[in-house]
Design a protein that fits this description.
Blueprint: E1 2-3, H1 6-28, E2 33-39, H2 43-59, E3 62-68, H3 74-85, E4 92-95, H4 105-111, H5 123-130, H6 139-150, E5 159-163, H7 170-178, E6 187-191, H8 198-202, E7 207-210, E8 228-231, E9 235-238, E10 246-249, H9 254-258, E11 263-264, H10 272-287
Parallel strand pairs: 1-11, 2-3, 2-4, 5-6, 5-7, 7-8, 8-11
Antiparallel strand pairs: 9-10
The protein binds guanine (GUN).
């Protein structure tokens, strides 16, 4: 069994991005600039945004964080989005989710200029991805395709089974891997809560992607010998074996499944570290005007 080391692959990609940023600054005196909008005081969102800022610093990009109180109205937030859409200093920006309940997330996402939507959440970017036009790819699907490619795993003609059809992971990754493109061309099955014979379908996968959001849902009898297993889940559970009293586990029962497969991503240290890399990669593309010209 080979462990797919997401931390190491993410570090490699960050080094590549840092070199490109340094070259841009040398050639054009241009420093890519990512902004993040943070509304309210969700602790996880604050942690994610701080990690995004740090990643920008690490690769030599500029970053700005716009923090607003939880009482911010939808109209005020739409005005902030409008301001960032028109700020020539900002190459790309994200609005950290979730937003407070009184704000319609879809309305906010649709207000972002697709050219600056480095999360790849705007329907224009989703649509462009579907028809294989240049687009900002969403973080986790991009991360998964990079982990597969950089581990030397072929996708062409392979049976890929994705478990979970969320807008930000399952659905887009199923599209990316089935597209007529390099590291696509797979035969993809997208499973969900209404799928019949799930165990049998999963056990037929050459590459199994677990993005269902249920701790250790994928058991050994759902995995084919020699399969590649990508675990997108991340759950914090109580443990008396760690100092903190908690440990992180994924959607895959790692102990038993790892004995059967050829490659597997650990949790933590698999898919997780790749997601921020995707964001800074999109910001670099935005600064270079690679997607929309
Ligand atoms: N909240 C959790 N993940 C994400 C993400 O990738 N982008 C944004 N904007 N918010 C998130």
């Amino acid at each position: 069994m080979n462990l797919i080391n997401g931390k190491q692959i993410a570090a490699e990609i960050k080094t590549e991005i840092a070199k490109e940023v340094a070259k841009m600054i040398d050639d054009d005196d241009k420093n890519p600039h990512l902004a993040a909008v943070l509304v309210g005081d969700d602790p996880a969102s604050h942690t994610y945004v701080a990690a995004k800022e740090k990643a920008c610093q690490n690769v030599g990009m500029l970053s700005s964080v716009y923090r607003y109180p939880a009482e911010t109205t939808e109209k005020e937030l739409l005005n902030i989005v409008h301001f960032l859409n028109n700020d020539p200093e900002i190459d790309g920006f994200i609005v950290q989710l979730p937003l407070p309940k009184h704000i319609d997330e879809n309305k906010v996402i649709e207000a972002i200029d697709p050219k600056k939507d480095v999360d790849g959440f705007h329907p224009v970017n989703v649509g462009r991805m579907v028809i294989n036009l240049p687009a900002y790819l969403p973080a986790t699907p991009f991360g998964i395709t990079q982990l597969i490619q950089r581990s030397g795993i072929e996708t062409e003609g392979k049976n890929v089974v994705v478990v979970g059809r969320s807008n930000i992971v399952g659905t887009p990754v199923s599209i990316l891997l089935s597209r007529k493109a390099k590291f696509g061309n797979a035969t993809v099955t997208l499973c969900h809560s209404k799928t019949e014979n799930l165990k049998e379908v999963c056990a037929n996968a050459d590459i199994l992607i677990a993005a269902i959001g249920v701790p250790e849902f994928i058991k050994e009898d759902m995995v084919k010998d020699g399969a590649v297993v990508i675990d997108v889940g991340m759950h914090r559970i109580k443990s008396d074996k760690t100092k903190s009293g908690f440990k992180l586990i994924g959607d895959v029962a790692f102990e038993e499944v790892s004995k059967k497969c050829s490659h597997i991503t650990p949790v933590p240290g698999g898919v997780g570290p790749m997601t921020i890399v995707a964001l800074i990669n999109n910001t670099l593309k935005a600064a270079k005007k690679e997607v929309y010209g």
